[in-house]
Amino acid sequence: MPKIAPHFSKKLIAWYLQNKRELPWRNTLDPYRIWLSEIMLQQTRVLQGLPYYLKFVEAYPKVEDLANAPEDDVLKLWQGLGYYSRARNLHATAKIVSEEMSGVFPDNYKGLLKLKGVGDYTASAIASISFNQPEAVVDGNVYRVLSRFFGISTPINITAGQKEFKTLAQQLIDRAQPGTFNQAIMEFGARFCVPQNPDCGNCIFNENCWAFQQKRVAELPVKIKAKPVKKRFFNYMVVLSENEQTILQQRTGKGIWQKLYEFPLIETSEEMNLSALKNLQQFEDFSKGLNIEDISLFNEKSVIHKLSHQHLNTRFWIVEISEEKESSIPISEVKNYAVPVLIADFVSEFFENY
Hints:
Elements (H helix, E strand, L loop, with lengths): L7 H12 L11 H10 L5 H14 L3 H6 L2 H8 L6 H16 L8 H5 L6 H12 L8 H11 L8 H14 L5 H14 L18 H4 L16 E12 L3 E2 L2 E2 L10 E2 L2 E4 L5 H5 L2 H7 L4 E6 L5 E5 L2 E12 L7 E2 L10 H10 L4
Parallel strand pairs: 1-8
Antiparallel strand pairs: 1-5, 2-9, 3-4, 6-8, 7-8
Helix pairs in contact: 1-11, 2-3, 2-8, 8-11, 9-11
């Protein structure tokens, strides 16, 4: 464990109080709103998450409002923010807090940690900000600041590294104002000690920063190389009837986009032409009961939708039928369903005249 630098916390907090961004969740100690902001900002930049936060607190000003909302409405409001398991966990936790805890969030780290979708980082953030408990947060920004300042080369994506950084952050936290310290170190990492080309010459810590003094800023933090990206091939069958009806299906598996809606999907091992597609059992299953008159390809070049660890190579096939099935919906209603951004972009382009 590196030697703790004197005055690190005080200098960091002083910087924060002079330079912090004015954000709505920084003007409240309400654990509901702190929790909401922290869940939204997981793997999401502040500028992207801010409008979603404002929409959610307007639609659901209290945890009971969120708990009473239909899940489809919550997913629809979340649409575009990605990592939809966060939204499902958000809704499930709101129900638990509302129905089993009388709308009152646990006021301590261990209690918060038991909530669905709440891990060490989120529990620490809520406990420190809402309840003034000295629980240090550790996220990507914190890893970056601490690894560079103290010269720590332990990989941040292994258990030993996570424990080392958590222990160090816990030693550094200002016990008199833990919430302010946590927000300060995250803000400093997000806005000053950035991943690429930080302005080290004007950094408040440059005289004591190990990485800057050793000219090794770009090397830290260390992260073990991730698994290779998996390629998947999606073929969406966009059914259109003469009466302007189409078909949407809800994803029920445990993979990506659980409980979101999409057009009937045929996933293949490679990109396929129509002739090859028609020879698949999946296509035969899809086409049962449909009086297909014509099939045409909407996008010759696949749309590549990038997710963490996988790239979806996607083509949309327009399937014209003479009469709709009982499960069909009007094309004009597609926009009311919670769908992945990939589908939403297609709908916006293809159905703009409907």
